[in-house]
Amino acid sequence: MHRNKKKHTLSFLLRLIIVSIWLCMLGVLIQREVHKRAPVDFDADTLGQHIDTKHEWAGIYFNNNKIGYTHTDIKKVEEGYHFTEQVFLDMSLMNVPQQVHIYISSVTDRNFLLKLFSFKLKAGVIQFVAFGSIEGTVLKMVVDTGAGEQKKTFSLPQPPIMASSLKYAVLKHGLTYGEAFTRTIFDPATMGIRTLQVEIEQQESLNIRGKIYQGYKIRQIFDGITVHTWIDAQGNIIKEESPMGLVMIREDEHEARTAGWGKRQDMVEATAVKVKNPFLKDGLVSLRLSLKNVALDGFMLQGGRQLVNGDCITISLEQIKKTDTYELPYKHEDMQDFLKPEPFIESDDDGIRQYAATIIGATTDAQSAVRLLCHWVYATLEKRPTVSIPSARAVLAARQGDCNEHAVLFVALCRAAGIPARICAGLVYMRGGFYYHAWAEVYLTTWVSIDPTLNQFPADVTHIKFVHGSLEQQTKLLKLIGKLSIEVIEYL
To answer: Which domains does the chain have, with CATH numbers?
Structure first.
């Protein structure tokens, strides 16, 4: 039983891995002098006087084991530049082999501001596709998560840059040793805009496979997540370190495709937070833990059933009374953000609305409706690791998935029924360790945790919520992976 539950964490962890690699790809900034890099003639200095296409390859490693590679091309076009990126990942997650292909294509103007893009993630028969254009500060895009295309329009604070073109935009701007500045980046996987802080640091010597390189260390930060990059005096990448301990190392095409591969490492087990004294979780009403080796600021740990004191957190099981309810739909204005649709939570979709109405039937009691919706999602979705960027519409059509698929469909159904709901992410305990996981919260007369993957209402006290909200919020968990340790203090 526990083994099956652990499979629910697979694609959730893999999505964090993909975002971590995307962050690492942000980091290559070019600087040819120690103290000052003036604005350049980009075509001549970077592409070369007689070459109109530039190629870059890098191997991706985790715990010194190769798990993939990246390949980036840049080519001059009439009004700017065309970037193409490919990422290949080959890993094991709970002894389940997983191969993931990511393809990104983007066209920029001469200042590297994004004009057109396409993004495709493919894993087996599952794929996610998004493409669009930007005119000024208006983004128009089409998303296909497997349940048909959806058109979306967003207003942006300013024209963004794609990760692949960031380093060239900064190079053209010019760099000063010790300088710090910010750039706006568009992430097609989450359809989000991120503000990235860049700091130019010191020169260091690096030993890469027995060869010594002199590199300039550059730090990039967003939402407290740090990526480090080292480049040589010619502006070539030497090494990059992203969250989770993922490392990218410069390689040629042959090395990237063929060298360094070994036995697949199980990344679910490698990233789990094991505890010294395993315990039985069934029937617990309270759990007190010490969260060590990480800064806890910026996380949503305090509140509701979670009480934080320093690095200690106490989680108490909610006691849900029959009176903790209201007549549907929820009518007050204070919860509108948790009732309206979002990207990937299409609670306004006709199919989602129809299923919500069918599941709850004539029920107008909010708590009863929550129980019906949770059980329906749990009973209907086949428990399978699914590597995707899930949307409620696609999950409803596919009827399968792991924790993220269960959570996103459940939240969409709740909102369609007039029940405020949101996705939560953090860790859950099973088989002697804490594993990364996603579940939900619903608003009755207060926020209550609920796990539709495990059919728990309320969710058991071993669920540690660190964030709630969109995939952008969930990426904050990258600050924990490989660093967090947990000491069990008391359980009742």
So the answer is: 2-258 (no CATH), 272-491 (3.10.620.30)
